[in-house]
Amino acid sequence: MTNALRTGDRHFYAETDEAYLQLYNVVVDTTDTGKDLLANGKLQKRVTLIPLDKVRRDEIDRRALQQAQQLVGKDHCRLAKNLIEYDKAVDAAMAHVFGRTLVCDDMDIPQLVKEAREKLEEYRVIARAQEEEVQKHLKNLDRLKKDTHTAGLRKNQLQGEIDDIRKTAVELEKRMKQLVKQFTWIEEEKKHFGKAGSSYDFGGTFNAKKARQELEDKKARKDDLSKKVNMKAMNMLTEAENQARKLEDQKSQLEKDKQQLMETIEQLDLKKKEEIIKAHEQVNRDFGSIFSSLLPGTSAKLDPPGGKSPLDGLEVRVAFRDQWKDSLGELSGGQRSLVALSLVLAMLKFKPAPIYILDEVDAALDLSHTQNIGSMIKSYFQESQFIIVSLKDGMFNHANVLFKTKFVDGTSTVTRTTNVHSDGRKGK
Fold it and tell me: What are the residue boundaries of the SMC hinge domain, all occurrences included (predicted)?
């Protein structure tokens, strides 16, 4: 293994020499070759054989590497495999041995990376918990809406039944009046109801025989009346009213639950509005700054329509030397392209990504604007990577690495060139 690698960066010579002392790996082309070496017994010390036909690559996740480099800087945390020069034929073996090893300037950096990754995982757990809580509330809201709807239907049904019973009660009342008119003795005897010593006095000495006879008479009268009057109507009315009261109580509880959910929704809406206002302020600030850098002497902003807030919509306003234009239609095609590009990049700064891909965004622009785009990207997006397709030198001059395509003997080829900046630094 030591014969297969060498460092290309003098800054890491000491680390590489130290690694040489720890390496006891022998790279062989096939498993059979390794078996022959072991069988012949000519190895002088204990080693690990790495057959190229069986070795598995073991490399760190690219996103994890990018997060570590964003935390401490690319120059302070590098992949060990990238610091070693070796024959491409043993690339798989190098990835197996050094693919998950990071080389840092000092011992504090790995601890920072570890703490940052633990913090990131903690935030992810919190975010997942909050998302689950929101989903839980939404499900409860849907269930309560369905229950409210069902209760409303049931209430309407019972209200209809109550109306029917009341109509029946009115009809029975009319029937009772008819009976009073039909049997005149009722009106005549009515004044004696409940009086002591009368036939309708139930507080005196109890006469079983007389009571039994009266009971028989009343049963006979009841049977006669039951043929004409529905005695269950009042009981049905009472039951319906009790059920209606229960439903009213349920409705009241549902209204309280609904109010709590509405308050939660209002709080979420308020939080959403605050986030929108915050996003508008930052994007508006970056939009104006980026556009001014692309087109010196100009200003740009995102304003809500007259008398409205950012929640109602935004309009793009552009000024040349403090003279605000009434419409984007007054701008040239190239100027509108710069406005659109500035707005997109301003939104990207609000929610940055590790990498961006731009395809000939300078196609309709002249060389000076292209030069400004390249300078702006290096200035405003120092922590991001860009892959840009361009045909203009103004963009090339700001690139760290150029990949050029051309035809060679009828075949499309790609060449890689590292730019050297004015301060002598090479691009990464």
Answer: 21-114
Helix (H, G, I), strand (E, B), or coil: what is residue 25?
A: strand
Q: Please give the structure tokens belonging to residue 81.
A: 């495999």
- Can you give the pLDDT at residue 189? 72
pTM comes to: 0.41
Single-letter code of the amino acid located at 353: A
Distance CA 209, CA 200 (A): 16
Q: Which two tokens stand for residue 380?
A: 């405003």
Q: How far is Cα 29 from Cα 183, in angstroms, rounded to an integer?
A: 122
**pLDDT in the model for residue 14:** 44
CATH 3.40.50.300 intervals, the chain = 352-428
pLDDT, averaged in runs of 10, over the chain (428 residues): 52 47 68 77 70 78 73 72 78 78 69 71 85 90 89 89 90 83 74 66 62 78 70 73 89 90 90 90 92 90 87 90 88 88 91 88 84 87 88 83 88 87 50
In the block, residue with structure tokens 């006469």:
207
| 129, two tokens | 């918990």
Nearest to 94 by CA among 50, 46, 33, 48: 50
Judged by DSSP in three states, 405 sits in strand
- Torsion angles phi and psi, residue 381, rounded to 5: -125, 55
Phi-psi region of 230 (alpha: psi -120 to 50; beta: other; left: phi over 0): beta
Element (H, E) at 402: strand 401-408
CATH (residue range 352-428): 3.40.50.300
For helices 232-294 and 367-380, angle between their N-to-C axes, nearest 10 degrees: 120
Does residue 276 contact residue 270 with C-beta atoms inside 8 Å?
no
The alpha carbon of 346 is separated from its chain's Cα centroid by a whole number of angstroms, namely: 21
User: How far is residue 37 from each of residues 27, 47, 48, 329, measured CA to CA in Å?
Assistant: 11, 11, 11, 78
Rounded (10°) angle between helices 367-380 and 333-350: 10
